[in-house]
């Protein structure tokens, strides 16, 4: 089975790594700039800076107004967006292949020539404050920020990506530009592209557009977190109780991530998973119940989220505890192993049909491994996982000494005491 197309990598003189995949049967190109800039690299007094800078890069350059930035891509049928995470910020565009030069020019313009005007900073402070309020008004989203603050407890991974309202109001041009200049450097960046393109032509375009980008890097080591079992409740007058149960998980580069994929799929990562079937389908105790993996450079998180009534939260928590214990005590059946592997492989293969996903995969492989990881290797690693690997990982992750739980709603700690 051969899933890859034509992969290339070039490192520019200023340190920017250009990675691409030529896919000749499509007419789109997805291109993105990935910067090792996120909430975990902020200080205690600068929380939210990385995300705020992401917003500011859309607010005007020496050549383009904020409207120009938005309208130029819209006017050719393309899509432009960005996101900030714990460890990365990404700016990406999907565009018809014959407008690739426009996409590169626009990305270079916002990364090299953004003005950070005081007037626009003031406007964006108001926008981000509304974004934080919207998050706080959405308990099914906010509970994840609450959990991470409790679970990571003082470690940089526990800082909220959006920051806090007080910190947003204290931001100024000087602090933003200082953070930007420290992290937006060539050695700290990857430009990835996938679609109907030629690598040599892409590299020449990127050299011309990004040639003035500062060379250099910034510290990307945040250190291993020390975690312990914690429980916390945020009492609110809500219609539902929202709960997250979580533990450590394999990092983005750990060989154990492959058993982790199967463990998550069987536990709560699909509609056929144990938690979904037992808690929603069989008992009707919750509309939303799922598990998820959040891998980082040096560690990871496996979380379980549920939203249920206050009179049902105790039963839901106990059922989750039973599901975790069962994964430690019993190997997965051959049928479950086969189904989980087919689910993961199928999702992976379908994602490979999108230039967006291929572009993102190129960047993440470069950032995590410094190289291209052939899709065939991923399939082989998934196939090689055995049921005992999954059971051993479950015993490691579901250790009561690191398992934590938080909840919000009309709930108390006794309602969620895990494994009581």
How many strands in all? 11
Overall number of structural domains? 2
CATH C-level class of the largest domain is Alpha Beta
Amount of helix? 40-55%
The averaged pLDDT comes out at: 95
Query: Uncertain runs with pLDDT below 50, 5 residues or more?
Result: none
N-to-C CA distance: 49 Å
The largest sheet, given as strand count, sense and whether it forms a barrel, is: 6 strands, mixed
Helix- and strand-based class? alpha+beta
Shape: globular
What would you give as the CATH superfamily of the largest domain? Metalloenzyme, LuxS/M16 peptidase-like
Number of helical regions: 16
Summarize the structure.
This protein is of the alpha+beta class and 420 residues long.
Structure description:
The chain is an alpha+beta fold and 420 residues long. It folds into two domains: 6-210, Metalloenzyme, LuxS/M16 peptidase-like (Cytochrome Bc1 Complex, Chain A, domain 1), CATH 3.30.830; 231-416, Metalloenzyme, LuxS/M16 peptidase-like (Cytochrome Bc1 Complex, Chain A, domain 1, 2-Layer Sandwich). Helix content is 44%, strand content 19%. It has 16 helices and eleven strands. A hairpin with a 4-residue loop joins strand 9 and strand 10 (300-308). Helix 9 (257-267) crosses helix 15 (387-397) and helix 11 (313-329) crosses helix 15 (387-397). The mean pLDDT is 95.
